[in-house]
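Action item from last week, closing it out:
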Amino acid sequence: MIQYLFVINSKGDLLLLKNYQRMPLAPDIAESFMENKNKVDIPVFKYNGLVHQYIKREDLYFVAAVMEGISEFLIVEFLQRLCQLCKDFCGVVNELAVRQNLMLLHEVIDEVVDTGVIQQTATEKIRPFIHSQPTVVPVKVIDQPGLFGVEKRVVSGSAANKPVILSRGDLEARRNEVFLDVIEKITAQFGSDGNLQRSDVRGEIQMKSFLTGSPVIHIALSDNIVIGTEEQKTGYGTTLLEDCQFHDCVKRSERKNTFIISPPQGEFLVCSYQLSGEVMSQLPFRLQAIVEDYDTTRDIELILKLHCDAPAAAKALAVTVTVPLPKCTTGITQRLDSSGQMAEFQREEKQLVWTIGEMFGGSKFLSQFKVFLQCSAITFEIHIHIF
């Protein structure tokens, strides 16, 4: 089914290659992939009689070449699972981790794919057959002041970036740990007056388990959270979780908002949901837009002010503001008030995309843009006929 599989970085350097064909591959396979990838807008293209599909994680491309007629959804799901396996066994997914764990990744892929046929992608099933030792990502511990000046030790967010299998020297110091992350993506539409018009919150609960044996974990949600449909929502201040999809290892308990989890080893998605309720009108962002016309030209000046009303300890990542522009827009100039930002004019979509890498609670960002317009002038005559 799979003819060959490889991993390359954003520069086109080939990092890992598995060939399941009887014939050798061309030496310029990485260059050919980069050229054909830039010709299409979707992560699927046909080259040399094979269908190439890929996903991008960090600065790496995971690519699979298959025969025609194979389900695209199957290959995408396989590539996502393969990327997740690399994260489980290496700790992180980046170029350095791949280069330092090549032998380990070859063992993992050999267990996952046999002569081009997908076999098994579960971490706990593959782990007993992996014998190479991974490069362990060190865990950083930072000091953070607690209540009333009492110091407490807090594990950083990179603590979970370690492999599920440890080297022989680290087995004795191994601890039973489990990490739980709640990730929510907010999509909001603001009007020209800054008022919220429409919003959507989609979230997911991710867990990464380093527990030995077969433990059972109980997780309880707050009492004001209701899981179900709009008809089940009762009371002011209730938060409704709609379209909830749970992992196979999650079972609902008899107690309200309590779940029983038998976690597999590695990282997995506990559940995904869509948020509804009063919180939809209380978003942590406020956007102000000011549009001014130039007297001498048809160009306009656009000023964007983004405020984050979240608590100071909170941090939003990869904040993106998309502004539709007139169809006669030819280009922009930008002026950003601080680093960590970037703006791009997408010519085909006729829109401005303003991206902020990270935004702490209580902060605000300001950006100024000059939008160049080239509107065609219309010349016409009106003939008056008098009879």
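Closing note: The helical segments are 29-37, 72-90, 95-100, 102-112, 123-126.
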